Amino acid sequence: MSFAHIAAITIHDVKNSLSSIASAAESHGDTPTVQAIFNISDTLTRLLVFYRSEHELLRLNLNSHAPEDLIFELAANKYGQSDIEINSELNQAPVLWVYDEMLVRMILVNALQNASRYAKSRIVISAKECSGYLEMSVHDDGPGFSDTVLEEDYSNIPASQNGTGLGLLLAKRIAALHVNNNQQGRIELSNQNGGLFRLILPA
Fold first, then answer.
1. Which of 28, 111, 123 lies closest to 75 in space, CA to CA?
2. How far apart are alpha carbons 177 and 161 in whole angstroms?
């Protein structure tokens, strides 16, 4: 039995246990604990996906999805920061786009979790069609990305670096798997009155 298979079984069991703990915490109105458990569950899933990407075992499950639905869902979650306002911008969003929704959700959840750590009061998550690409972005009003992160290609960032490196490297790999008509997906980071994370996927 391969490590990936053992890891998948173990992570599934751990996530089931976490789900039981989360249910108990929710019944007691312990929202911070519930959110912390969800964050741990997301981290375990990212770890398994990262391993699969390292060993070229990661395969996309491509289908047509409504970006607007995903953005609405994500904007409704406070990600442990009840004092942070999360707004959505969808006036230029396409009706449908082809991508792996589970993996794209994982990327955006990680970007939102990172943004919530640094935002002063507001995060904007958006989806729009631009020059034949779908652009999903997470924009916070915090201090922005450091020069080190902006200049890095994410290939050598340690996973322990504030939880950011693994998420960025995984996002880069997942984006690059989305290919159509010789056009490849990518991520872009910039500072525009705060940190701006963009996931850009071809049509």
1. 123
2. 25
Per-residue pLDDT of 124-159, as tens digits, reads 999 999 999 999 999 999 999 988 888 876 655 443
Question: What stretches of 28-181 show up as alpha helix (H) in DSSP?
Answer: 31-54, 67-75, 101-118, 147-151, 165-177
The predicted-structure confidence for 69-111, as pLDDT tens digits, reads as follows 999 999 988 665 668 999 999 999 999 999 999 999 999 998 9
Helix or strand run (H / E) with residue 187: strand 186-191
3-class SS at 139? strand
The tens digit of pLDDT for each residue in 2-16 reads 776 787 788 878 888
Q: Which of 175, 202, 197, 170 is nearest to 186 (CA)?
A: 175
Helix (H, G, I), strand (E, B) or coil at 83: coil
The two structure tokens encoding residue 21: 């703990």
Report the C-alpha gap between 169 and 135 in whole angstroms.
18
CB–CB of 91/71 below 8 Å?
no
DSSP string, 14-31: HHHHHHHHHHHHHHTT-H
